[in-house]
Amino acid sequence: MVVIVFRTRLRPNVDQQALAQLGARMYELAAAMPGFLSYKDFTAEDGENVSIAEFESPETLAAWREHPEHKIAQQRGRTEFFIEYHIQVCTLERDYRFG
Question: pTM of this prediction?
Fold first, then answer.
């Protein structure tokens, strides 16, 4: 499994509706990709947004990363929505649960 941590800060006066529409479309596309496992969003009190996505393998993540519509969304993120972002791609070392 590959876990992606995507941390962002939004530009001032960002078009929240456009961002929400794009996010919904990206989720729709990603969820239909082979190897997609999960996606969640969180917003911290300081305004940082954190998204966590899980893919089955580096290969399935690479297919998502290179999806043509996702590539356009990445560019829009840089030019329209985010003042900064940080992406971490992590491979799973251990996985266990309680409850």
Answer: 0.90
